[in-house]
Amino acid sequence: MIDRNLLVGLHGKTLFYPCCGKDLTLPIELFASAISDFCFADKRPPWARRIRDAIPSTVEKVTGNAYRDINSGNIFLFNYYWQDAREVLKELPQLGVFFHRGDGLATEKGVSSGIPWLGEEYLGQILSKLVPGGFVVTDGSNCPQDGPFQLKRYYDTKEEEYAGTVFDEVFEYKGYTFSCLGNAGRRYGPTLIWQVN
Fold it and tell me: How is the chain split into domains, by residue range?
């Protein structure tokens, strides 16, 4: 799905997925060949079965929280932080990937985080940690008015509304160039893969 040559700059870097719930598999499938540390964060508890079921068949456990991507041989750490994801973000080093989908700005019944991850404040923090050529992978969840419209263009749309769309848009935001590489599947709309330079 992503050209392997584009992943070279991710070696030794972190993937951060805040407010992930049980959506753990796709980020591993997409980036296990390159990322060194997968950091998932959610206030909901990380049930062992949830984690065990999330590990794709193309990955094998090495020891503790270390896993190996069978196809590439890349060894990575799987970390699940049972705490406020905003606090986790503060402590993270350089990011190779920011992954976020399936969330909402409303906090009714505790189902959504209500955190505007794609708004100016948090997206600014994320971009300052993202390496050149890193990725933002999102369905547009939690993008308020001050966030880039392009990231939320297809949020909360039905599949037939974007069927046949070629996702190849390029846009500028706060001095960063976002280039869409395609769709990684549906959540609250298409999960678009944006490379950022």
Answer: 4-196
The reply to whether the predicted model has a pTM over 0.90 is: yes
Q: Could you name the CATH architecture of 4-196? A: 3-Layer(aba) Sandwich (3.40)
Cα–Cα separations (whole angstroms), residue 9 to 33, 87, 161: 12, 26, 34
pLDDT tens-digit readout, 156-181: 888 888 887 889 999 999 999 999 99
- The terminus-to-terminus CA distance of the chain in angstroms comes to 19
Q: What's the pLDDT at 43?
A: 86
Mean per-residue pLDDT, 61-80: 95
Neighbours of 40 (CB within 10 A): 27
